[in-house]
Write a structure and sequence with these properties.
alpha+beta, 60s Ribosomal Protein L30, Chain: A, 2 domains, 3-stranded antiparallel β-sheet, 26% helix, 25% strand
Length: 234
């Protein structure tokens, strides 16, 4: 697997995303995943807000969240079935504005994939849209997949044997988030100006089937760590 970050100019609000990708990735090969940061997807959709006040942030977070809780540093929220700080609303690299998450990253990933497949007559092509999250009890951010198309996001290892023949009962591999984190390590999250990336020959299961946005989600009541956090001392 090879990861190639693509340095670009600054992406402008309401700019055409597909033309921007064509500008910096003029040719696409078979067995490739195009990685796109959620920020430029949101900018292409005009998903910005001019008011950066605390009151405006809280109003937006309430609008964008399925659940929210005030914590020491941020609002902890449930957004599109995932935990996120402040519903993913971000002021970094926003030129004084707030940038929300895209409307429907799975739909956008499919649209871009369909256009590129048609243009380059490709079979195995994926598109992956990323955002950053904090991992509980770990320093530093990791990238997550918030939308993807063209490959399976989870690899099911259950009922397969381990190296000693023991059957695996619960093991699944989070392919989509693993690829997202690998790409964003190369792309950066500051002033690098690398909103695009190419992953060549990734170890994925390619598919033309529509991706279920719930493929990687689990209900909060089934989360492995929920009992631990519920019983932490104040």
């Amino acid at each position: 697997m090879t990861i190639t970050p693509i340095k670009t100019r600054i992406f402008l609000e309401n700019e055409n995303l597909e033309k921007f990708i064509d500008e910096y990735i003029p040719a696409v090969q078979e067995n490739t995943i195009i990685v796109i940061t959620s920020k430029i997807v949101a900018l292409s959709e005009g998903r910005t807000y001019d008011d950066d006040s605390e009151e405006a942030r809280e109003t937006l977070i309430r609008q964008e969240s399925e659940w929210m809780l005030k914590t020491k540093y941020v609002w902890l929220t449930l957004k599109d079935g995932m935990l996120a700080a402040s519903a993913g609303i971000d002021a970094s690299n926003a030129n004084g504005k707030l940038i929300l998450l895209p409307k429907n990253s799975f739909q956008t990933a499919k649209q871009i994939r369909d256009a590129l497949r048609k243009k380059y007559s490709l079979t195995n092509l994926g598109v992956l849209i990323t955002d950053s999250r904090l991992l509980p009890l770990r320093a530093g951010a990791l990238a997550y997949a918030i939308g993807y198309a063209g490959f399976r996001g989870v690899r099911d290892n259950r009922v397969k044997p381990d190296i000693f023949g023991r059957e695996l009962l619960y093991s699944q591999t989070d392919v989509a988030d693993g690829l997202a984190s690998s790409a964003v390590i190369c792309m950066g999250e500051g002033a690098e100006q690398i909103p695009l990336c190419i992953i060549t020959d990734p170890p994925v299961e390619w598919t033309d089937d529509p991706i279920d946005p719930n493929e990687l989600r689990i209900p909060p009541e089934d989360d492995l760590y929920r009992p631990f956090f519920e019983n932490l001392p104040d």
